[in-house]
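Lecture 7 notes: from sequence to structure.

We start with a single chain of 1225 residues. Read the sequence below before looking at the structure.
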Amino acid sequence: MEKEEKKFVNKAEEDEMEIYGYELCRWKLVLVTVGVICSGGFLLLLLYWMPQWRVKATCRRTTLKDCEVVLLRTTDEFKIWFCAKVRIMPSLGANPLQNPNPIVHKVSNGHAVHFCESAAEENKNDLKKYLPVSKPIRYFSHHSVKYFWNDSVQSFDVLRGLDESTFCSSIHNEHSTGLTKGMHDFRKAFYGVNEIAVKVPSIFKLLIKEVLNPFYIFQLFSVILWITDEYHYYALAIVIMSVISIVSSLYTIRKQYVMLHDMVAAHSIVRVSVCRGNQEIEEILSTDLVPGDIMLIPSNGTIMPCDAVLLSGTCIVNESMLTGESVPVTKINLPNPSEYPKAMGDEIYSPEVHKRHTLFCGTNVIQTRFYTGELVKALVVRTGFSTAKGQLVRSILYPKPTDFKLYRDAYLFLLSLVVVAGIGFLYTVVNSILNEVPAHTIIIESLDIITITVPPALPAAMTAGIVYAQRRLKKIGIFCISPQRINICGQLNLVCFDKTGTLTEDGLDLWGIQRVENARFLLPEESACSESLLKSEFVACMATCHSLTKIEGVLSGDPLDLKMFEAIGWILEEATEEETALHNRIMPTVVRPSKQLFPECKQATNQEMTSYEIGIVRQFPFSSVLQRMCVIARVLGEKRMDAYMKGAPEVIASLCKQETVPVDFERVLEEYTKQGFRVIALAHRKLESKLTWHKVQTINRDAIESNMEFMGLIIMQNKLKQETPAVLEDLHKANIRTVMVTGDNMLTAISVARDCGMILPQDKVIIAEALPPKDGQAARINWHYADTLAKCTSSSPAINSEDIPVKLVHESLEDLQMTKYHFAMNGKSFAVILEHFQDLVPKLVLHGTVFARMAPDQKTQLVEALQNVDYYVGMCGDGANDCGALKRAHGGISLSELEASVASPFTSRTPSISCVPKLIREGRAALITSFCVFKFMALYSIIQYISVTLLYSILSNLGDFQFLFIDLAIILVVVFTMSLNPAWKELVARRPPSGLISGPLLCSVLSQIIICLAFQIFGFFWVKQQSWYEPWTTESDSCNLLDATNTSSAHHGNETLHDHDEHYIKNYENTTLFFISSFQYLIVAIVFSKGKPFRQPSYKNCKSFLTVYSSNLFLMCVYFIYVLLTSGNFFLQLVCVPYEWRLRILMVVILNAIVSVLTEEAVDRCGVSFLSSLFGCREKTPKAKYMHLAQELLVDPEWPPKPRTTTEAKVPPQGNGSYQIITVT
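Now the structure, written as tokens:
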């Protein structure tokens, strides 16, 4: 066949994959069957582990259109292969992804499916008339998503709902009537059941999957080999340990499945009411919902079983399951663009862009507000795993592999051990042939050396440290849903913080107000509760412009709104269901002053004041993208309505009539923001009398939010949390950069950054103000210095040399980023720089400290930009607007009351940033533990390998119980207790290495291998030089302690035992090497159990030190020196050696310990410099991009930009993103 063009599924998305088509090939299948039989099933295992080999070995390549099997490969750095069987589904009609008839409207790339609705379609006969008989539909399933064949693109594609390529106008005009029964059934055939099914696998399936793990297959191979070699007890012990490990693993995996199943299954199946195309209301199960159904939201609320866009009414929703934010959110209906005569234009509906109108699956609708006769309706746009909740569950079920240098290096390290095993294999074969050993013995012993060199318990040992770290984190209130990230947190060298609620207190205190009259600021006022202001438009705006609601009689909503409303002392009243039902329109929320605010005056005036009420007619909720919110309200008895708006001062001022904005607006705002106050601006507008209640309900937001009158400022005091400065100081001392990412005003953010120590008093702050291309001019960046911003006037154009930051030369590369200048910018500037100044992005993020007015997606882009210059990025936020950044960061920590939030890998129940250094300390401890365990397991294999190789030279080996004693009494206990060392009490400036392939680590391992090799070889040859030495036989009696009486019985007993000692286990070399190697395991365990500066020392780990090392050393010394004094130990197959020799071996062990400890200490202190001088290496360019860039910028005369200069984008013909710096005089 001709080579088919490379096809993709999920093109340009995070889970993009290449796709290839294959069909079954019978002759290949026969060959594979023969191969499986000949290899004893090993080929089958290999094909099970490697899906790409399995498909290529049994199938031949064909086009996707005719394939029976598809082969998928991810396009990310991991290049993981998957295979799936193509299935055939009988169609009720035409394929929705084709367009052979007027029923189905095809959307490009097989996206949203739109069906015409008419009375004729209600009749099934009419349906058949339009739908010709079609061929069966082909599809495959992968990771809980169905991919259907799409003829238009000649590939498979996901069947989308109404969440893509659907215009807002068509949602109202084409989809608001509901589906007919026939069309509902038609869609259900494709979309399937609306459920997020987390199937709990049976014990048998889990067992098969676990047992077929390469680790257990290797264990099985080893056990068979040991049984063949008559190591029955050792093989039995390993089998028992493996069974315990499998049972434990099965229990953990099944428990996780059950927990996830229970979490997803809760409230997932409910009865819902839907509107049919003929206006009938039908009650169905939520599992029968399909995109296009019109769902009625009950007034008492519900758990949403799907993603739906609100068509009418208002809902109050708790979205804590998705965001970790427990504050209820108000959802309003999606505006209909076709009803706006002066509309800006129609736009495509998107759940993310229009999230204020979208009810997400799994969220809790607390209550609704509705019209009489026009219930609260929502259009189903996504179902099942396509919903927001479904995608989160998929990310848990099918997590992306963790890309961490430690894990990559671990495979290389194992590969090197395999090479060592190969050398031992060849040595054993050659040595055995030269000594004329039988063939079956050669095969067994040469394979045995492989099982010794590659430690089968390594994966279990590596996870021990992470499990213990996870338990310690749980004890301090930090919950983790991605344990592998704990190790990565040990590498964090930059942490981004949200401001409000993270660095500062969640609650805001009203510091005061500053009203505007006749375009001039009045003096600041401490309180808004005064008689003169009671009926003012300023207080009316504070009383109405919010999203507060009453839930079970308690006022609830955004903390800022709550503080603002409480400051004026008004009362909020919402209409009950009964009151709403009496009117032909929705009853507005009413606010009025409390009686305590009424002045003591005449009765008539008092009655007039008590009747003063304001009804909130329409609400445009706060948008973090627009940075404002707006309401339409009417005073009781007034004919005309009022529009009130509050939000970011810069945004509000830009939407007001310029003649109403004070001339000194920017100066006053700067004074407040530089002091760290949070400033909110208010605006007002009288609406035209022709605007009726019905028109207001459908009017465009942009039509209201213009030509406003500026009313003044609300100044809120956002206090730093008590622990913030101390935590940031600890991070700075540890050379961990801190960055502020906030939605607040930039000068406020800079002030808070200075107050908390993120920016030191002597440091300069450079504000990058980027402007997009306009009127033929290129995009440009204006550079201002924050402290001199107000001084920049035409009368003083000269640049003060003191304002230009100093470049510092640092001793270590780690300190390069800590120079005396910081960049600050807002979200708009960041967006322009990303688009037009790509070359500048790395330079700016290298010193960028304050990023203000950042939208949620921009926070994610910032995290990615920091990762692109090789920072290990942590993100700490409240989970509300930070979900994307929390997930994208290497270590995302959500400050939430929830025990575990799917918003981030880590969740801290304590709403304090003190959890950040705790997590980093635990991460460093877990990372160092992983290194320690890995190094120990490698040395354990090499020490045993050396012992066995030396014994093979005399055709001997270690005994069955000797192996058993080493593995159970020493290795197993040491591995699982050396991981118990808790984290060091404080963060230090040095970070642990990120990989195993590094100079100090390799130097440490190699030096210990050489020491162990030297002492074993020394003991092996020294024993042969002893005067009493002779090749051991049953008559050997080197102890000279047996009298004549016991000689015969001992001789008889030894003869009996010798009959069973076919492998020549009992000899002086074996006893000597066993004694030395047993202590070497403990020596390297102590040497590698590093304490300060990342973990607490072993002697503070009572379970580890006292239980294992002390007791083992003491017991082994007593055992070897005294118990073996009179006779050989038959249990461990040791022989009796003279007392003097035991003392000499003990001296060798002590010397070994001293040399090992001193060598490790020397490697720690001067290993890197020694290696550099040894190989004549000069100081290399740092690997991390940010360190390399910092070195370059130190010698760049144009960086940082000088005050009052402009950088213009210059787009040459051959590229883009270049720039030139122009000094403005």
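The radius of gyration is 37 Å. Keep this in mind for problem set 3.
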